[in-house]
Amino acid sequence: MTNNNAALDQVFHALSDKTRRAVIRRLSDGPITVSELAAPFGMALPSFMQHLKVLERSGLIRSTKAGRIRTCELEPATLDTAEDWLIGQRALWSERFDRLDAYLTKVQQDEDGVQAKNQTKVSPKG
Q1: Domain residues for 39?
Q2: Nearest CA to 25 among 87, 72, 86, 65?
Q3: Cβ-Cβ contacts under 8 Å for 75 (sequence gap 6 or more)
Q4: Do 64 and 14 touch, CB atoms closer than 8 A?
Q5: What is the pLDDT along the chain (126 residues), one digit of tens a residue?
Q6: What are residue 74's DSSP bridge partners?
Q7: What's the rounded Cα separation, in Å, for the pair 76 and 86?
Q8: What are the two backbone dihedrals, phi and then psi, of residue 110, each rounded to the nearest 5 degrees?
Q9: In a domain, 83, yes or no
Q10: CATH of the domain at 49
Q11: Cα first-last separation, the chain
């Protein structure tokens, strides 16, 4: 369980940066060379490579080298792991909100019942 938590922490850390999220979005279209991938970001290649290292360590992308060309590719299974965690959280919180809603509805109904009883007791004699 601890290993899984550490891996998930790395994924969310990698996704916490807008540049890295943009890289993931671009790689969802398919593999691309590092130079093509870096071009729209307007940063020095060594700085961009740091972002790629974080993404590779998290398992979100992988890169291959053929001669002097490095190509990056998305690892969708890692995104599936993060998505599964988010789905679990959504289900957990949905259940909690449903229980809270049921409790608040019951409290409101009990309060309405008490008010109705009190109005019956206080009604003027005619």
Answers
A1: 2-75
A2: 72
A3: 59, 60, 61, 62
A4: no
A5: 446 788 899 999 999 999 999 999 999 999 999 999 999 999 999 999 999 999 999 999 999 999 999 999 999 999 988 899 999 999 888 889 989 988 898 888 888 877 777 777 655 655
A6: 61
A7: 15
A8: -60, -40
A9: no
A10: 1.10.10.10
A11: 73
DSSP letter (8 states) at residue 123:
P
Token digits for 118?
A: 């009190």
What's the Cα-to-Cα distance from 12 to each of 74, 88, 92, 119, 121, rounded to whole Å?
15, 15, 19, 56, 60
The answer to whether residues 65 and 49 touch, using CB atoms and an 8 Å cutoff, is no
**Distance separating alpha carbons of residues 84 and 44, to the nearest angstrom:** 35
Number of domains in the chain: 1
d(CA 21, CA 43): 16
Task: Quickly tell me which residue has 């608040």 as its tokens.
Answer: 104
- Backbone φ/ψ region at 30: left (φ over 0), alpha (ψ -120 to 50), beta: left
Residue 108 lies in a domain: no
